[in-house]
Amino acid sequence: MKYRREIDGLRAVAVVPVILFHAGFEVFSGGFVGVDVFFVISGYLITIILLTEIEKGEFSIAKFYERRARRILPALFVVMAACLPFAWLWMVPDQLKAFGQSVTAVVFFVSNILFWQESGGYFAPAAELKPLLHTWSLAVEEQYYLLAPVSLALLWRFGRRAVFWCVVATALASLLATEWGWRFAPRANFYLPQFRIWELLAGSICGFIATSRAPRPNELLAAIGLALIVFAIFAFDSGTPFPSFYALVPVVGASLIVLYAHKGTFTARLLSTPVLVGIGLISYSAYLWHQPLFAFARIRSMADPSPELMSGLAVLSLALAYLSWRYVEQPFRRGPIPLLPSRQAVFRASTVAGVLFAAIGTYANVSKGIPSRLAAIEPGSREERLMASARMPMGTGRCEPGPRTNGAGALCAVFEPANAERRILIVGDSHSSVMLPAWAGVGERNAVYWLGAPGCPPLIGVSVHGGMFDLGVCEDVARRQIEMVKERGFDTVVLVARWSLYPDGYNPGLGRRVSLSREGEMRGTSQADSAELFAQALPNTVAAYLALGVNVVLVEQIPEQKVLPEKTLQQAALLGMSGGVDDEAFEKAIWESSTTVEEGRKRLAFTRDVVEKLRGEKVWVVSFEDAFERNGRYVWGDRGGAFYSDQNHLSVHGTEFLRDSVTRAFEQISRQARGDMSAVADHP
Fold it and tell me: What is the DSSP string of 640-668?
């Protein structure tokens, strides 16, 4: 096959945005599409090689897999080996256990399946701490290569044309599957081969075209191809449904380049510049090195690593890539070397190395992360208490059977004192349920009940798309909340929710975007339409409660954080910052890793404006943001532990921290309600 410098240049265009995206540079918000470009290139090149060998009668399965082993395994095993000492030194047991699972999964090229089964998604904050997360794409490719050569050889008897249309049909089926997948199975859609194979087959289709009637160079189509890739890199972000029809943008772009950006075109000359070709040659090693460097930097740091550090690590990934390309990739790919003089030697060495890594990974998993490494974290120690502080509060009191088998919409009695002064119903999503322990002071004199469901905002007249439940569940819960106020004689309704999520927000834990529509509509709406619906639905909901004669309290969303407190506490324990001798350093680390007031208010500005406008007669608005504010930042914890269990939910310690604030705020509301006052400022 004739060497094309522009293809190596295209590899550089693919790998650099991936690296910068994982480094956290927001301008490259769609840098993850570089993987899709790699899929097209891989499908294209492999198909040309296979077609050429089959047509010449030289095809050999053993030869094919020998090439794959020489191409993929040496550099991969070197990077995995380099990860081991840092994992041992810096990972807490849960992290090391998960890392061990990923090591074993990589050996068998099933890491995509492992990451699919884990909680969260590719864009979730916890994903940044997985050194081998990026190997999911290698697994997808190798799973494709398990079937593609054999299928091609078997189907060849029906003729080249029949094979081509079989490839086209399979690609279309996979493309349609991914459009379904991002809506109903987002994690599977991202990681599993049946939803990704169309991207590799797009390259295969290009390979068929190029080896039959090779297209002439075309300046316009080649330039459009490059423009599509660049557009996706800068226009897409973690909230873009992906993969989906959106993935056609980078995939079609890469396809146009491999078909039409031949020598002589401007695009080919641009991609053939020495810098891009050089990066393209080392792109595989660069891809392997970058994620472990970034992940271990984040694991080691109390706060988010600085942009300067991440920039330096990005450069280091290229330097390490050159070394592994020069001294690992090239010697193995140029053919037999003294240590591996034959195909059998390649397979034997690969098996031995694979078994060794699988054994190491299995031991880390079975031993639950080798906790003996961290003898300083003893049962009952302060470190253990700090980590326990980040747990999410569980339990909603005594609950009646709900109308749904999943428990959504059950009415729960949280506090039931004798001779209760008031009957309070708290409604909302998971933010309302985790906040319940903070109402303990109020519950000493008032009956407090809860009715809600995770991912279901207390809004009537709208449907929630992309949430935790099937369409219709949240609507039923919202109607039941109104019904319970009518039937059970509540005099106060408290609305608590992660308000900012519903005007079309991205939920990392679910790995997909959440949006609203008018009740009963089967599809979500755009961000602008979801925001407009939210701005209508909340006032309508408040009006519906007021019509029942009850007082309404709206609790503003607590500030969101940019780090995972549990992870940061674990690092504090490893670094010795949580001990009594260094509380000042510990609190400084908390402050430095907390979100700024400016960032927090910007994130919540829209929904806060909607909530604030509802102050009025019998409607109170309560905010607890001042409780978290310290010198220009909303802190996620103190010396006693974490206020948050993740980036937006309160923890056990957080509910204890807010208990007095909640009690004071409600006492003030009660006094003003008795005095028939129309509004109240935020709690003092």
Answer: TEESBSSSSSB-HHHHHHHHHHHHHHHHH
